[in-house]
Amino acid sequence: MGLEWSDFWNSFLDNYKLNGKVREIDSFSKSPIEDICHKIYDDYDYDKLTIIRRELIREVENFPGVHLNTSRVKGIESLLEKVITKKYKWMMNPDNRYSNISSDNYDKIITDLIGIRFILSYSGDWKALHDQIVRRFPYMNDEEYLDDRLIPLRKDKEFIAEIPMVYYAYGDDLSIFEGEKVKKSIKPSGYRSIHYVICFKGVYVEIQVRTIYDEAWSDCNHNYVYKHEDNASYSVLLELSDILSQYTNTCSELGELMRSIYNDNSIVEKDKKFIATNDTFLRISHLFDRYSKAQNLITQFKENLCVKGDESDE
User: Contacts from 50-57 at CB under 8 Å and sequence distance 24+?
Assistant: First the structure.
């Protein structure tokens, strides 16, 4: 796969700043993590996964409500970085699947070797897309999902391999998920997405679903905040990311509200007043309250903002 292993390994560890984690893993584990990664490096069949990704895209590209879909196969550096990071995080917990990851089982543990992202224009389009995903990749029997387990891969069956996870932020409206077989997890960072893991052609595939607004925030946050704690401006970028998250999510809700008003005429102008149904009135009031909270974050940020050289000594 290109470079000789020793050249690849050393530059890889330096680029991803993983030397310290590798030393700690090796001090605890019987098998050197380099040996595991070397075997994965030799075993990883990127081309095979690319063929499977293309087959899956042909099947799902016309799923309803999707504004855009993107997909990728995880590169070898990204894969090895995940192996090391997960091994390091869970090496003291033998009950976690990542603690025992090896060259023999990595493809049965890491669920996003292939990833697909569905981008929706409106959050309300999620239900139709979810129903289509479940029809194509049905749930297994309920007992298969006990203890939040990841259902083992099978080559003779395609299915949802774990209960889908809804990642949401403070203040989000979760009513659309009521009655659905999903789990929910709050993300203080502002990350919003619905994650599915499916079994397709004997391979795990992760499907992420989010709106165009959440995708815009996620792209910016991933490039400049996520895993960039060593940047000198990290704390500032973190606050700006929070502000961006507040606005992108309220914009997403506003777009959905506009579609609802258009379809139902639930608010009309009369005598220079906007006359709304009770439900629409409450939705607008709640939404604009969230805009006010976002504006408060901007006000707080501006209060701490000064030109270089004008810093207070207090």
Answer: 52/114, 52/200, 52/201, 52/203, 53/114, 53/116, 53/205, 55/201, 56/114, 56/116, 56/200, 56/201, 56/205, 57/116
